[in-house]
From TrEMBL:
This is Concanavalin A-like lectin/glucanase. GO terms for molecular function: carbohydrate binding. It comes from the Bacteria. SUPFAM superfamilies: Concanavalin A-like lectins/glucanases. Residues 497-521 are annotated as: Disordered. InterPro entries: ConA-like_dom_sf. Keywords: Lectin.
Amino acid sequence: MESHPGKKDIIRTKQNIPKSGELFLDFEGEVSQPEESESPLIAKAKSLSVLSSSYIIDQKNSFYGKKSAYFSGKRNQIHLSVSGSSLFGPNPESFSITVPILINEQGATSTILDRTVFIKGKKYGFSLELEENKPVFYVNNLIHLNNGNTTSAEIRSTTSIPRKEWQIISILFDTDENRFVLFQNGYEKAKFEANGSEVTGIGFPEYDSSNLILAKSFFGNMDGLHIHKGEPYPSKGYTKFPKVQYSDETKLASHNGSWVISPVYSTEFSHSALLSYEALFEQPKDTSVAVYFRGDNRKFADSSKDEPKWIRLEDPKKLPSDLPKFRFHQWKVWLRSDPEGNNSPSFHSFRYQTQELTPPDVPTGFRVAEFSSSERKICFSWNSNHEKEVRDKGGYMIHYGVEPNRMIGTLFVKKAQNGSFAAIDGNETGSDYKNLKYCADEDSLISNFYIPEAEKTPQGTEDPRFSSHHERRGSLFQSGITYYFKISAYNHKHDEWEGRDQRSKLSSPISVHFPKEISER
């Protein structure tokens, strides 16, 4: 049997998508709804919204998710309504704007963000631009002075942005310290501090209804525009995948990864064995992958944490010796990015092969060998099953009833000469491969009804369902009744709880009539 659990898509480590903020555009939705994220913000601000959107969906390059937005100059832009947000008002809280970009050959001179407006011939607002591959942030009359005037500032980075490589640019509007800070990949590159005594604060014009334009004149890709209160995430916050964490206080390190967990699958029969598996990964340097398996003959939930236990499979060519036999089974794969959070292993495909333990065939040649109505004794013969699992610690059951398709009792043990009980194996005096034998009388029925609690019964018959507590009373052979008998075989894994299917179907019935004596008429 071959199975392919999991998704058909390539699976990687869960990405490091921000989960809080005012707005996050991950471009996983359609062009008209770039904010429709697969992992939406916990609390999305209604005061920030997309008015219009034009870009090309790029599924080959992305920082978050599976898509990014490609912009080709002024023909592609996104207009965001921000005037309803207090962050873009006269007295804003400190906030940050972060955007990962991927520039091409034409993107060396671009306008990434722009929110400017002319009021009485004076330019207000801000813009984030690229000049010769270096970020420049222009602040236009947002710094307020105590004489009622405003002033501007330029914040220039000296670090060039490489082409065809994702770069994260963040701008901090620090209204508490009256400063603007420019970050690249989480590291501070330039800032402007308005600390003079004449500075009263930072704010936008009171009646400014202008939009924030994303990619006003930009050649390249964007992914994951993030607007939120407070400072930008540190360098570890805007990595594509989780980065290793280290605590100076506890001196402990941690590194989050992702689990890919399959549903619980089932084989047709119980007591199956795992023969082999093959997992196809791409594993960049310093990333980590691991494969785990668990199984049980009893059904368990997908989300079960404790039982059955997970077993790590280290080598496809050498499976652990303690793997359980199972009918229900589940897989999971551990994926962890490199310590810097730049690369993730990729999980492409998975297949495995199991070997199932099939139930025995129906015994053949079931017949009456001897019959004594006076002793109410009947002996049966049948051909031995070929399965070694039946001959070795398995056995047979003889079922009887008063109608062809209604069995009222089961004979599953015989009494040995020493008084102990054993499975019905057909090995009696004079029996052979094609002539197994078992004799049943009323004593046999009583023995199967009333097995002493302390008596050890054969494997496969220990379940209390076999005992007198669950057998029908009053089903001793009676005169004047025709009884129907069927036979079944079970292998050494038969168990009423975990291996109930390891028994054959019942044979066709044979009938025996116990006549009434004259004195009974």
